[in-house]
Amino acid sequence: SITFGKYHKVHVCNLKEFKIYGGVSLDNLVLLLHAGLRNDTEKETFSLKHLFGNIVFPCLYLKIVPILAHGASFNFSIWYVEVRGTSDTEILEKTYKNYIDYKESEVIRLCLKHFRQRNLLEAFTTLNRNANIPLEDPILTDLHQHLAMNGDFSSSENILVQACSNGLFEEYITSYTYNPLWKRVVLPNNPSMRGGHQMCIDIEGRKIYIFGGWDGHKDLSDFWEFDLTNRCWNCISTDTRKNGGPSPRSCHKICFDSKAKVIYVLGRYVDPENRPNVNLEGDFWSYTTVDKKWTKISSSTAQENGPDLIYDHQMVIDSENQILYSFGGRLVTPDSSVVSYAGLYSYDIKANRWTLLRSDASQGENSSQIKSRIGHSMLHDPETKLLYIFAGQRNKDYLSDFFIYDIKNDIFQEVARDYSVLGGPNAGFTQRATIDLKLGEIYVLSGLMKEKNNPTEMVKSSFWVYNIPHARWSKIYQNDQTENEYWESMQDVQPLPRFAHQMVYDTVTMKQYMFGGNPGDALYPNLRFDDFWELTLERPKPKDILWKAQFQIRQQKFKEMCKNPTEALQYLKTSVYEIVDHSNEKESRMFRNLSWYLFGWNKKNNNMESSVDTKFKYKQNGLVNKFGKISSADGGLLGIESTNEFYDSRIELYEKLLEFFPKSMRQPTENLVDLVPL
Questions:
Q1: pLDDT of residue 450
Q2: What sections of the sequence does the record tag as coiled-coil (predicted)?
Q3: What is the mean pLDDT of residues 180-209?
Q4: d(Cα 327, Cα 318) in Å, to the nearest integer?
Q5: Cβ neighbours for 627, distance < 8 A, ≥ 6 positions apart
Q6: Which helix (H) or strand (E) segment is 485 a member of?
Q7: By the 8 A CB rule, do 446 and 462 touch?
Q8: Which of 124, 220, 520, 659 is the most buried (most CB within 10 A)?
Q9: Bridge partners of 402?
Q10: So what's the pLDDT on residue 629?
C-alpha cells in the first residue's frame, strides 16, 4: 500500500490524478495504480497491485507520475509518501524466484506457440520435449492434433461436445451481454403500494418477505411473504405490533439469516415534525420464520455500543459465523438540521455484542478511507469474507465510489474513486444491488442518479452488471422515458423508473424480484407503486456455443471438400445446414455465402477462398493476415514449405475455437513476433 500525507489545509497543488508504476527494473515498469487525491487535509491510503494472475509481483522501484493538480496550471506537490509491504529477505527471494520462473516459462510457451503456428514441428517437438513446459491444456493439444494436423473433423467435434458437457464454455459465456426479460407478476391479495420498505429472501424455504414502508401518507407495519413455489402472497400480519413485533417504519433495513432462519430488523426514519413526541432510541428486532415469533433484542442499540437510531443504512449477515454488519445511515436526532452518519459496526449474534469497526473519525491504519453515507449498497461474500460497498449520498453529494472491506484483515481497499468514468453507472442513491457468488457478478438496479456537471436529480431505470474477477461494468438496459402515453402502453412490459424500491435475487432460478418504489412524480408526490416484477437475464447456453463451434468446424470441412463440388454441396445441404441458426440473420448469411466456395476453387495455388475472403484476410498488399502472420501473396507463410495445404486455415480455425475455452487452458494470447522492437 501507499499513503499520501497532505498540507494542513486545502491546497491547489494537491494531486488530483496520478499513476504509480513499479517493477524490478527501471526499463520495465508496469502500472500498479491509477488514482487521485481529494483536495482536503486527510491522508489517503491506496492498495498497490501486486498480483498478476497467481503470480506475486516483486518491486524494487516505484515511480509516481503526477498528471493533474487540483488547481489549473499549477505545479504538483507531494507532501508526504509512505510505502508499506513485505521486505522479509526469505519471502522476497522466494517471490523473485517464482516471478523469474514464470517469465521463463512464458517465454518458452511463446516460442512453442510460434513454432507450431509456422508449422515448424521439428523445432516445436524438440523444445517441448526438452523444456517439459506445457503450452496448453492437454484437451486443447488433442484438439490441435485432430483438427490442424489430421483434419479429423469428427474427432474435433467430439472434443468440443465433451468440453461443453464439462462446463468449459462457461467463462466464455460471461463475456456476452445479458438480454433482460421483465415479467410483471400480477396476483390477487398482494401488498399495497409503498416505498422505503424492505425485502429479504429465504432461498431454501422459497419465500420472499416484505416488511413496512411508506405508502405516501403513513408508515406501515404489515408483514408479507411471497411463496416462490406456489406463486402466491400471504399476509403474515397486518400490524406486527399486535404480534409483539416492531412499530410501523420505513427506510429501515432487514436481512435474513439462512442458518438460523431468522430475520433481523434495524433502524427507521422519523419525520422531523414528529421527533419531539417520539422515542428516538434505536430498537433492534428479530423474527424466527420457523416459530413465527418476534423478539425485541434491544430497546437502545446505542446503549449497547451499537449505532444510534439510523435510517437508509445497509445491513448484511455472515450466517456461518453469526455476525451481522451494518454500515452508514443517517442518525435520527432531535434537531434535524444536524447531519451525522453511523460508521461500520459488527454485531456478534451469539455474544449479543456490538463493535464499532470504522467511523469518519477513526479510519484505521494502512487502509483506504471510506466516508459514511446513506442510500448506498453493501453486499457480503461469505467465501472470501469480503464486503462490497458502493455509491450512496453524503450531505448533498451523490457518490460513485467502490470499496472492498476485507473482514479478516480489517482493511478497506478503494476499487474506484469514480466508477462512472470507468464505464459504470452515474453517481446514485437508493439503487438496489444483489450478488451471484458462483458467477462472480453484482447486479445493480438504479434509483436516483446525478450526471456529471448536472446537479439535478433524475429517476432512471437502468440495470447494470459488475463482473468482480474482471472489474468490468456492463449496462444491460436503460429506459428513462416518463411520458404518460408511452408508459400507458409499456407499463406491463417493463417497470417504470423509480427509487426507494426493493430487489432480491433467487440464486436457484437466477431471477431478480422487485417490488414497489417511488416514481418521483412532482405532480403526485404521495404516489407509490405496488407492482411486483420478475427479471430474467438471458445469455447463450453452453449448447448454443457448441453449435457455434461446430458450425465453424463444418465450414472448414466444407471448404476442404470443394475439390469435389458434388460431395461438398450435399454436405452443405445436410451437415452444415442442420447446425445453423437460421433465425440469426448474421449466421444465416454466413451459411448462404458458403456456396461461393463451390465456384472459387483455384487449382493453381490450392486456394479455396473466395475473392471476398481474400480481400478480408490478406491486408496491406497480401502480406499480413487477420491473425498477424507474415504471409506471401498466395497466402502461404513466408520462408516455410507447408506439408499440409490446409494447415494455415486450420490453425486459424483452431485459434478461433480457443476463444470458447477458459484463458487458463489456452496458449498465450501474445505473439512472439510482436515482442521484437523496431
A1: 67
A2: none
A3: 96
A4: 14
A5: 652, 655
A6: helix 484-490
A7: yes
A8: 220
A9: 390, 416
A10: 45
- Identify any residues that bridge with 214 across adjacent strands, giving them in sequence order: 195, 219
The answer to whether residues 426 and 420 touch, using CB atoms and an 8 Å cutoff, is yes
Q: Which of 633, 624, 643, 577 is nearest to 602 (CA)?
A: 633
Q: Which of 578, 134, 569, 577 is nearest to 142 (CA)?
A: 134
Residue by residue, DSSP assigns 81-137 as EEE-----HHHHHHHHHHHHHHHHHHHHHHHHHHHHHTT-HHHHHHHHHHH---SS-
Phi, psi of 315 (to 5 degrees): -145, 130
The percentage of residues in the chain with a pLDDT greater than 70, rounded to a whole number, is 90
Instruction: Please say whether the beta carbons of 12 and 74 come within 8 A.
Output: yes
Q: What pLDDT is attached to residue 314?
A: 98
- In whole angstroms, what is the distance from residue 83 CA to residue 632 CA? 53
Indicate the helix (H) or strand (E) that contains 15.
strand 15-23
Q: What is the mean pLDDT of residues 355-384?
A: 91
Local structure of 589: helix, strand or coil: helix
166 dihedral zone (left: phi>0; alpha: psi -120 to 50; beta): alpha
Q: Looking at residue 410, what is its pLDDT? A: 94
Phi, psi (deg, nearest 5) at residue 16: -85, -30
664 SS3 class:
helix
Instruction: Give the residue among 357, 335, 330, 337 at the shortest CA–CA distance from 430.
Output: 330
**Which whole number is the average pLDDT over 210-229?**
98
Return the number of other C-beta atoms located less than 10 Å from residue 499's C-beta.
26
* Pair 143, 549: CB distance under 8 Å: no
Size of the chain, expressed as the number of residues it contains: 678
- Yes or no: say if 118 and 110 are a contact pair by the CB < 8 Å rule: no
Angle of CA points 95, 100, 102, to nearest 5°: 95
| 275 — pLDDT class (breaks 50, 70, 90) | very high
Q: What percent of the chain has pLDDT over 90?
A: 77
Section 606-623 average pLDDT: 39
Range 483-504 average pLDDT: 75
Residues 294-300, mean pLDDT to the nearest whole number: 98
First to last CA, the chain: 36
The gap from C-alpha 57 to its chain's centroid, in whole angstroms, comes to 24
Give the whole-angstrom CA distance, residue 477 versus residue 466: 14
> pLDDT tier at 248 (50, 70, 90 boundaries)?
very high
Provide the 3-class DSSP secondary structure of residue 659. Answer: helix
> Using CA atoms, how far apart are residues 191 and 265, in angstroms rounded to an integer?
19
- E strand or H helix at 311: strand 310-311
Q: Which amino acid is at 564?
A: N
